[in-house]
Amino acid sequence: NVPLCAFRYLSGKPCPFCGGTHACAALFNGDWVGAWQANPAAVPLLILISAHTLIWIAEGVRGQSFTAHATIHRAMIWAWGSVLSFVFVSWVWRLLNGA
To answer: Which three-class secondary structure state does DSSP give residue 57?
Structure first.
């Protein structure tokens, strides 16, 4: 039997992304509450990944880089930093509350 999460298998604690698959499935079904309960960090992370992917597609179609513009570049750095900070804080919260 192959463990789904090596971190959880080795430590007995969830990794920052445990519950992410359930959260994505819940979002796909429009269940925002279920997604939040499965893994709160998955919601903003999925939104940011989707937005960044759309930017890359638009850059490819237009043939120019939006993220090379200083304001957009700073906004993307801020967005990624914020979301990754939320992932970490959410994970610590889950660990402290016996997830």
So the answer is: helix
Please, what's the b/e burial string for 6-40 (b: 16 or more CB within 10 A of its CB; e: otherwise)? eeeeeeeebbbbbbbebbbebbeeeeeeebbebbb
Q: Report pTM.
A: 0.78
Q: Percent of the chain having pLDDT more than 90?
A: 49
Going from the C-alpha of 38 to that of each of 3, 20, 27, 92, the distances in angstroms are 18, 7, 10, 15
Using alpha carbons, list the distances in angstroms from residue 11 to 5, 36, 92.
10, 23, 14
Mean pLDDT of the region 56-77 = 84
